[in-house]
Amino acid sequence: MCGIVGYVGHRQAQDVIMDGLKRLEYRGYDSAGIVVTGDPELDVVKRAGKLSVLSDVLKTTPLKGNLGLGHTRWATHGKPNDVNAHPHLSEDSKLAVIHNGIIENYLPLKERLVEAGHVFLSETDTEVLVHLIEENYEGDLYAAVQKSLSEVTGAYALVVSHADHDLIVAARNTSPMVLGIGDGENFVASDVPALLPYTKEVIFLHDGDLVLITNDGVTISDFAGNVIDREVSTVEWDAEAAEKGGFEHYMLKEMYEQPAVIQQTLGGRLAGNGMDVQLDIGLDPNSIDRVIIAAAGTASYAGMVGEYLIEKLARLPVEVEVASEFRYRDPVVDERTLCIVVSQSGETIDTLEALREAKRGGAKTLGIINSKGSTITREVDDTIYIHAGPEIGVASTKAYMTMLAAFELLGIWLGRARGTLADADAKELIAALRQTPKLIEEALKNRDEVAKIAEQFKNYKDYLFLGRGINFPSALEGALKLKEISYIHAEAYATGEMKHGPIALIDDQMPVVAIATASPLYEKTVSNIQEVKARDGIVIAIANDGDTEIEKHADYVLRVPETHELISPLVNVIPLQMLAYETANRLELDVDQPRNLAKSVTVE
Ligand code: AGP
Questions:
Q1: What is the pLDDT of residues 77-90, one digit of tens each?
Q2: What confidence tens digit (pLDDT) does each residue in 370-395 have?
Q3: CATH superfamily, with its number, for domain 244-442
Q4: Is 343 in the pocket of ligand 1 (CB under 6 A)?
Q5: CB atoms within 10 A of CB 234
Q6: Would the CB of 484 count as within 6 Å of ligand 1?
Q7: Which one of 27, 241, 501, 549 has the fewest CB atoms closer than 10 angstroms to its CB?
Q8: Ligand 1 pocket check: which of 370, 601, 602 to mutate, most ligand atoms within 8 Å of Cβ?
Q9: Alpha carbon of 269 to those of 72, 365, 432, 501, 569: distances in Å?
Q10: 344 lines ligand 1 (CB under 6 A)
Q11: Taking the domains of the chain in order of start, what are their residue ranges?
C-alpha cells in the first residue's frame, strides 16, 4: 500500500527510483510521482495511473540529479489524480514530502495552516505535512521535521527532501520503512525488493525512528533526537527471486513455486524419528489453555485451517478472529491465552493492532510470518517463519500454502507436547506431510482441465464455493481468489449450511464449486451436490484421482491426488487458485495488481 523510494548517492536518482517503484508495484497504487533535487530547484513529475504513464513523461523530460524521492500512491484522502499524487511541494517549491499512512488530525492542522495563509492544492491529508514542515523550517530540515512530528497524530512513513540540502529526512510511525546501506550511497524504501539490485544490507526502521540520510551514512534517532543504534541485517532473497522468471505473471510463478517453498517451510523441522516436530520457539505448550488466531483475508483462512488442526491434534479450544474486529471489541484475553497472528507481510495494520490488543490483555504471542524483520516479528514473543520467499502477486498463493504447512507443524508440535497426539497418528500425519510437495506438483499438472472450466464460465456473474470441515476454509479461499482477480461475485458456504439459505440462489447461471475429496463426510457432501443438481445447478467438483462415484453427480470434475484429510487443504487449494488465475487471465485483467487492492494493507 503506497510505495516509497528515496535515494542519495552517485547514480542518477531517477533511474534508481523508477526501478525501485517498479519493484514495489505489487503493493498496489493508482498514481505515481517523483522529485529530484536539481539546480537550483526541485524537479517534480506526478501522474495518475500506472508507472508507465510517469515513465513516458520522464523519457522526454528526464530529471537529472543524485538525490530524489519517488512514490506510488494508493488513494485514501482524495481521488487518484495528478494533483493528489505525491510528492507534495511547498509553495516556494523547495521542500518535498512523500508519505504512506494517514494523518489523523489533518483537518484541525489544515484549518490552522490555512488561517496562517497557507494555500492547499490537493485534497490529501499528506499536504498538511508540507505546510507544517515549511512553517517550522529555519534552515535545518531535520529540526523542522522533528518539530512538526510533535504536532502530528496518525500513521506514517514519511520522507522529506529540500532543494538546499544534500540529505533526506525520514520518519516512521506504524507504516513500514527500511533503509538500504550502500557504499557512497544510501536508500530508503517501503519494502526490501526496491533495494535488492543495489544492496542487501538493510536496517528495518521501528516506530518512532527519525532518520537523517546522506550519501555517507544514516543516523537514526528517536523523535527527541537521542541517537539509536539499529542492527544492520543481510537480506537472503536476491533480486532474481523477486522477478517473474519466464512466467507470464507473478501469481502464476508463485503458484508453481509451491512444491519448492513448502519444502523450505518443513525443512529441518520434521524430526528424524518420524513422529515429532522441532520448532525453535520458547512457548511452553502447557502454559496455555486457549488459542486465539487473528489475521486478515487469506491469512485468516489459513488460520481457520489452523483452528481445525490445533483443536483436533492438541485438544485446545481455538477461536479465529478477523483482526480488524478483534481490536475494537474488548476481547477476553489473559496470560493463559496464546494469540497467534498470521501474516505474509508482517505489516498488516489490523493484524498488528490485534496483536497489541492481545498483549495488553497479557496473552502469550506467536507470529506465523513470511517477512523477516517486519513489525509483527519484532513485537511477538516467537515467530514461525513460513519461508515462502518474496510474494509479489497481490493474490496470495504460496504464502497461504506455507501458512497451512506452518499450522500443520504447530498442530503436531502442540499435540505431541500436550500428550494428545499418539505416536502412530503423528507418524501417519508426518509421513503424509512429507509427500505434500509431490502431491502439489501433481495437482499443478491439471492446469489444462482447470483452464477449460475457466473458459466455459468466465462470463458468468456469480460463483458459489462449498466445502466442509477442514475444507470449509478452502472454499472461502477459492471464493476470495476469484473475487480478487476476476471481479466475479463469489460466495463460500459450509456445504451443510447451504440448505439454510444459499440454496435459494441455485439456478443454471450459478456454477457451484464443491470440494468433495476423501473425508468421513464425503457421502454427505455428495447428497448436498445432488441437492444442487436437483435445482438445475452446475456442479464443478474438486475430487480425488480415482473417485468414479463423483462423476455420477457432478457436471465437471477437477482432480487432485488423495492425501490425509488433515493435509487435504494444501492440495485442494491448487485448482481453486488456478481457476481464479485462468479466469482473470482470460478476461484480460491485471492478475498481479487487481483494481483497488494493495498487497500490504498498512492503513485502517
Ligand atoms: C490475499 O490474496 C489477499 N490479497 C489479502 O486477503 C491478504 O491475505 C490480507 O490482506 C493479509 O495480508 P498479510 O498476510 O500480509 O497480513
A1: 888 899 999 999 99
A2: 988 889 999 999 999 999 988 989 99
A3: Glucose-6-phosphate isomerase like protein; domain 1 (3.40.50.10490)
A4: yes
A5: 8
A6: yes
A7: 501
A8: 601
A9: 39, 20, 15, 44, 20
A10: yes
A11: 3-241, 244-442, 445-592
Tens digits of residue pLDDT in 263-276 = 989 988 998 899 99
Give the pLDDT confidence of 425-438 residue by residue, as tens digits: 999 999 999 999 99
Atom of ligand 1 nearest to the CA of 397: 2
Alpha helical stretches, state H, 24-75: 51-60
Cβ contact 597:29 at 8 Å: no
Domains 244-442 and 445-592 equal at CATH topology level: yes
601 lines ligand 1 (CB under 6 A): yes
With bands split at pLDDT 50, 70 and 90, how would you rate the model's confidence at 1?
low
Cα-Cα-Cα-Cα torsion 600, 199, 239, 343, nearest 10 degrees, comes to -30
User: Does ligand 1 have an atom closer than 6 angstroms to the CB of 298?
Assistant: yes
Mean pLDDT calculated for residue range 8-35: 92
Residue nearest to atom 8 of ligand 1 (CA): 298
Residue nearest to atom 4 of ligand 1 (CA): 395
59 carries an active-site annotation: no
- 402 contacts 261 by C-beta, under 8 angstroms: yes
* Cell numbers standing for residue 122: 490537493
Residue of 46, 312, 398, 599 marked active site = 599
CA-closest residue to ligand 1 atom 9:
297
pLDDT, tens digit, 9 for 90 and up, residues 209-218 = 999 999 999 9
Please list the alpha-helical segments (H only) found in 280-397.
Answer: 297-314, 323-326, 349-360, 375-379
Annotated catalytic residue 339 = no
Distance, CA 290 to ligand 1 centroid (Å)? 25
What CATH fold (topology level) applies to the domain 445-592? Rossmann fold (3.40.50)
190 by Cβ neighbours in 10 Å (0-12 / 13-18 / 19+) ranks as buried
3-241 folds as: Glutamine Phosphoribosylpyrophosphate, subunit 1, domain 1 (3.60.20)
